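Handoff note, outgoing to incoming analyst
You'll be picking up this chain. Sequence as last confirmed:
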Amino acid sequence: MRARLLPLAMLLTLCAAGAQAGKVYKWKDSNGIVHYGDRPPAASTAARELTVIPFRAEPGALVRLRLTQEGGQYLAWVDNALAGPVEVRLDFGRSSNVRGEPQLPARATVPGSGNALVARIVGVDPARNGDFELRLDAVPGKPGATPRDVEYVFPLLTRDLRVDQGYGGSYSHNDAQNHYAVDFAAPIGTDVVAARDGVVMQVENDFDQAGLNREKLGGRANFVRIVHDDGTMALYAHLRENGVMVRMGQRVRAGQLIGRSGNTGFTSGPHLHFALQVNRGMQLVSIPFRMFSPHGILRFGESRAGAGHR
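Most recent structure output, in case you need it:
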């Protein structure tokens, strides 16, 4: 069976910064069958006409698609690079004389720092060659998480409190991921603490750009994502460059220092972007939360004005 794997289907990204080089290897076996992989063939395969295909890949990948062979089948594995669960959906970008078992599109939940077999790609007519391309989508979080009623800790070590943009702010809180986000004004370098106990699931730490170019900077920033015991995830975004103070897989307690605020990504000024998110049907969505501050319980209404920070 001949197989072709699109380079861009091998790495999926979220809030990644910059780009790095990657390689795909193409070769023929002793029967003249073409193979593609993310690693060079073993010396024992007697591979010939080896070609190395470079491509650009984003750092901070959520998952990695990996193909292995078992007899006349291809096994599609997904490796999770995060320290928390990720839901994936695998589908054919193109297929000829092959089918998926289970039938594609297929979904699977991959545990933190683990892997999962999502599907087997098998031939339909053994007398004919098969050819296919795969497409993989990934969303952080376990599907079906049931949020508990929790009072969150104010995520900044300061008594100053100013909300630059609240729920539904038209400046940048007008999509599902950010609708219930809150932007707290904070000078660069303000200590950021965990609002709830959890495990550090994902970090980005080396982005150094900021501005109002949504196309270039939208979705990019330094951040910490923490997954809680009920499956919800807290996002602390726009941290300063090298401002992350925790590592992936680390268990943190409410009030523990996790980073320092900054002004990175799509933003008009220094602030901390805080959101509580869940995975709903392969879509990352924000949900309302209760929070206690140095000035008492905070009440976040829907924003009317479009001004403010993201």
